[in-house]
Amino acid sequence: MLDTLQEAGYKAYLVGGGVRDLLLNLNPKDFDIATEARPEQIKELFGRSCRLIGRRFRLAHVRMGREIVEVATFRAAPEAEEQGDGDRLSVNGRIVRDNVYGTLEEDVWRRDFSVNCLYYSAEDATVVDYTGGMADLKERQLRLIGEPEVRYREDPVRMLRAIRFAAKLDFKLARDTERAIDACAELLHDIPPARLYDEMIKLFMGGQALATFDMLQRYRLFEFICPETAACVDDMEDEEGLVERFLRQALANTDARIREDKPVTPAFLVAALLWEPVKRDAKAIESQGMSSAQAVDSAGVDVLARQIEHVAMPRRFSLIAREIWSMQPRLQEKRGRRPEEMLERARFRAGYDFLVLRAEAGEKVKDEADWWTNFQQADESQRAQLLDQGRSSANAPDGDGKKRRRRRRRRPRRPQAAQPA
Q: Regarding the domain delimited by 192-392, which CATH topology (the fold level of the hierarchy) does it fall under?
């Protein structure tokens, strides 16, 4: 692709995370290209394999086999707004459209971090470095290009990107890059919920979720992603740290699955991140006379409704998260045909895994998790024994020494025969 651009007379370089990862002896996830060719010229060169996307930044996506390569045109420096070819729009210092085209020398100052601003030229196999990125790689530090507070105001999501890259690369934040976060954190309130969802997925599903969570907590940014969960983590009443322990266990498990190339789904992540607010709301609802299962169902709807005001949740994932939550009280029902029916449910495995996760984190559901583990592995006669145990536990004394009484169904009254007139 570089050859195609260069043969057409356009300067073109590999740039960004792919170059950075190669220099760090890491396996690049993808490669981006920066070129002096305009988006329409790129489209003309690559024809039907090219698609132009984006309003905020106009980009070309070029399909190469199964891969899609992002090709961006060099952008001009901010002060070149009047002379540049294109348009730029800023609102209160935040760039909402930036399609002013420029040169390579100008483009370097439009990028975010110095280690992502290394341009590889295939023509002579050299790396062009205008911003000290090579030195920062050696120091293993992440540094914003330019004045940090100005750059964060241009795009507040850069604070989350700083956390993500630092966690991924095991880098430290440069002092000025770090110091400006506290002054600019509130700007994340202005980011559209849909864009914050995209960033949340990148933060927690890149294989370093636990390290990312620790950094988000350190810089007080987790509260802009899951405000109610963050409040639960900080709750002084949680003396045993059960809430944070559950989150850390969930994120550690996600990292392990990614390392082992096992499938992960945003639905399970959403269920874990919002479980504590759901649990607390359900407890309050249940105290008003509703059953445990109904309370959890109602709480799940309410918590998700409040959460999407901050971070959007695609319906296909939020519905699965609600199913996972609703199964938790139902997994405590171990009598009759209910266990067999639960095994047939489409989301049983996710609900069961969530129950095991709760037990591992220290919630008092280990007996239920062990019972379901044994029930799945048992043969027919063993399952019958386990069901007997389930009936026995249902009639066992509860915490205050009283036996749990099963509710008896009232027989409907028979209608009385009409009296003869």
A: cca-adding enzyme, domain 2 (1.10.3090)
